[in-house]
Amino acid sequence: MSTVVETDVLIVGSGPAGASAALALSTYGVPNVVVTRYASLADTPRAHITNQRTMEVLRDLGVEQEVVARATPQHLMGNTTFCTSLAGEELGRVRSWGNDPLVQAAHELASPTRMCDMPQHLMEPVLVDAAVARGTSLRFETEYLSHTQDADGVTATVRDRLRGDTYEIRAKYLIGADGGRSKVAEDAGLPMGGQMGVAGSINIVFEADLAKYTAHRPSTLYWVLAPGATVGGIGAGLVRCVRPWNEWLIVWGYDVTAGAPDLTTEYAESVVRQLVGDDEIPVTIKSSSAWTVNEMYAETYSNGRVFCAGDATHRHPPSNGLGSNTSIQDSYNLAWKLKLVLDGTASPRLLDTYTAERAPIGRQIVTRANQSIGETAPIFEALDGLSPQTPEQLWANIAARKDATEAAEKQRARLREAIAFKVYEFNAHGVDLNQRYTSAAIVPDCTGEETFARDPELHHQPTTRPGARIPHAWLTSGTRTVSTLDTVGRGRFTLLTGIGGEGWLRAAEAQDVEIATVVVGPGQEYEDPYGDWARLSEISDAGALLVRPDGFVAFRHATAAPDAPELLADALRRILGHA
User: Predicted confidence band at 333 (pLDDT cuts at 50, 70, 90)?
Assistant: First the structure.
C-alpha cells in the first residue's frame, strides 16, 4: 500500500495560474506540491501579452528581470496592422500595447514596470524554476483523478502515468489550476455562467523569416482581412509574432458546427500561405491544433477547502491579452490569504474574500474579451465584407477605397474609425489596472462611490481608496530610487504614513500581525522629491494607508488619530476575518 503524500497546499496544473500559485506560496514559505498530467511544461506559445499589473506581481515575487530578459520588449509590440496579407495591402494600423505616445506616458506614470510579450512556453519555466528553487515539489505525468474533503483537509487521488498506479496526496487546501476543462472545478461543483464552444479556431505554429514584411512595422499582431476570415472565433485571420521575426503563430477560424478541419501539414501550410501572401518564402510547420472560443466564468471560485484559478474559472478568447494575466493575478490574490490562514494569523473566513474579489474580475474580462471580437466586424463592414460575396468582390471593395469619389472618401473614413475603435482591445489600460475589490478584507472609508473622470476601460485612474491597488510614485531612499510598490508586498502588510504619523507607527508596532512601516517625507527614510506621492496619496502627511500583501489598500485614514491603535486593530480584525 502506497504512502500518502502530505503537504499544506496541492496545486493541480503547472500553467500560469498553477505555477504562479506555487511560486508565491514557496516565496511565503508555504509547503506545496504541483502535479501535472503532462510530461513537460507548455511546448507552444499560447498566452503571451503580459501587462503592467502582472509585471508588478512578478516584480514582487522576484522574477521580473528574468521575464524581461526573455520577452519581446514593449517597443516591438505595438504597430498592430490590418492588411489583406503580410505581403499584400495595408489597410491601417493602431498604435498598441502602450506604444501610442500619450498612452506610453500613462504607462510610465502608472507603474514601475513595462508590459512585454512573454510567450507561455517561455514564461512557465521562469515561474516553475523559481518555485522549485524555493521549495515547491513538482510532479510531471501525474494525473489528478478525484478528491474528497473533510473538516481538516483534502485528500486527492492521483495517478502516476509512468507506473500506472494511483496514490493519495493529503493537503490542507487544494488549488485547481487545470485549465479550461478543469476536472477540479467540475468535481468541486463550481457553478458556471455563460457557454462553451461559441466558435472555432485553429492555431498553427510555424517558422519563417518574415522580416521584410514586419520589421519596418514591428508588432505582436498582424490582422488579415481575407475571404473566410470572418468565420470562427476572433473576427479576422491573425498572424502573431512569437519571436521577431522568424517564429510565428497563426489563428484561423473554422465553422464550429461543421467540426474542425483535418489539420494536415498541407492544410496548415495553405493557411500560412494565404495569410502571409508569399508562396516562395520557406515555411516550416511546427504544430497545429483546434480550439473553441468560450464565454464562460465561474460564479464561485471555491467550495470548502478547494479553490480554482485561471482558465478553470474564466474561459474566453485571447482578445485583449487578458488570460494569463488574470490567471497569475488570481493566484497572487489567493496565495497570501492561504499563507496567513495556514500560519494562524487569519481566520479561514479570509479565504471567502477570494471569490468576492476575483469572480467579478473574471466575469469582466470574459465579457471584455468577447466584446472585442464583435468590435472587429465594423472593419469588414467598412469594406462591405460581411455580406455573402465572392473573393473577387471583396478585393474589389478593398480596391474601391482608393477611388477619388465621395463614396470612397466616406469608405476611407469608416475604415479609419473602425480600426481606431480597436483601441478597446489593444490599449485598454484601465481594464489592466483599474481593478477594485469589495470584500470583507477591505475596510471602506465612507468616501462614497468612486467616479471616473475618463473611460475606465481605456484610462487608468490611480487612487488610494480601499480596494484599489496602491498608486505608483517614485520615491528616494538615500541614493536609491524606488517605487511605492517596492515598499509593499513581500507577503506582509505595510503601513504608509508621513511626518506627524508617529501615532500610526506606534499602532502598527502594537499589533500581533507583522506590519512593515514606511514613512515618507523630508528627512525620513523615504523622500518624495517630485511631490508625486503627496499628490497621489489622498491623505495628509499624518494620515495612514494599510496595504495588503498583494499591494491593495485595505484601510485608509486621512489624518492623525488619537485612537490609532484601536482603529488599526479593528481594521485588522475585519480584514483577517476575526471580527
Answer: very high
